[in-house]
Amino acid sequence: MATREGTWAYRDAHDDFARTFFRRFGDGVASSIGVGTYLGEPTDERDDEYYGAIRTMLSSGVNVVDTAINYRHQRSERVVGRALADADIDRDAAVVATKGGFVPFDGERPPDPGAFVQREYVDTGLVDREDLVGGQHCIAPAFLDDQLDRSLSNLALDTLDLYYVHNPETQLAENSREQVYDQLEAAFERLEERADDGEINHYGVATWDAFRVPADHEKYLSLPEVVERARAAAKSAGNTATHFRAIQLPFNVFMADAFTVAAHEGPDGPQSALWFAHEAGLDVFTSASIMQGRLATEMPDSVEAKLAGESRAQRAINFARSAPGVTCSLVGTGSVEHARENVDAGRYEPLGADAFDAVFER
């Protein structure tokens, strides 16, 4: 588990970055650039590329790695575990996050995915059919219990620093918004219990649409309501404070809705997801920082001119981590060369608050 002592010692050993590269996370610190592991085919060759890239970043000043059990059919978690064990970083210096919600395959896509899910999850009682949406998504407490156990095994860890309920808005395809909030509260209560047992340190919600769309959107979930459900779950679990700590959502030059869409009711009126999270004391981890490579080749000139970095990818990363309240921006890393480029983005200053706001002025 990441500790105050471990993360601060790691920061002190990597003191050649620009100001604000390391940011507070709990009583420790996290690098404001993190390793993402979503993209890539489920092959041994891709595993080897990830292994080298992750080791490079963890050994060079990046202490955040993010994955999910369904990424590349559990291969991403497994390669993260190997890289973490072999990289030049102590376990208590690394912030490791994963997610549960999508039913994962095992190493490769099976010939008949539906039959696999039925045989491995429904027939065994791990998933009740009525809790399964689209044949692929479940956030029932018993299922998340099973997934958390598998993730700990895949990663070869005793404790996860951050465990996300993955894209709960998927449940809105077959359930009402109120039902999804109820599902989340039940899931949070179980995660509070797992935190009490020492198997996770914090938990949160990782989303794609839920927190960045308008309130009338079919995929919308209210961040204030989710926070209230986490507090209720903590109380039900007998805890004086919730272990709900973080949210994850996309944020980049072309997907800036988390900053521009005021859809979450704050004390003084509607707020964007980023501002509400900041004022609620939540850490924000952004995904899609270079928009799956698009921003490495395409960026508005008016924005790019304001950003520091040797390459366009570095400038895109620095835009994402300039947003208010962002703890860490995640970026997919497919090679050692790209890993080094991503790390080096942190040697440039991000935008200050006034300069960041100016990007959105008309």
From TrEMBL:
Residue stretches making up the NADP-dependent oxidoreductase domain: 33-211
CDD domains: AKR_unchar (cd19099)
Keyword annotations from UniProtKB, A to Z: Coiled coil
Residue stretches in coiled coil: 174-201
Entry-linked InterPro entries: AKR2_Oxidoreductase (IPR053135), NAD(P)_OxRdtase_dom_sf (IPR036812), NADP_OxRdtase_dom (IPR023210)
Gene3D superfamilies, A to Z: NADP-dependent oxidoreductase domain
Protein name, UniProt field: Aldo/keto reductase
Species of the source: Haloarcula salinisoli
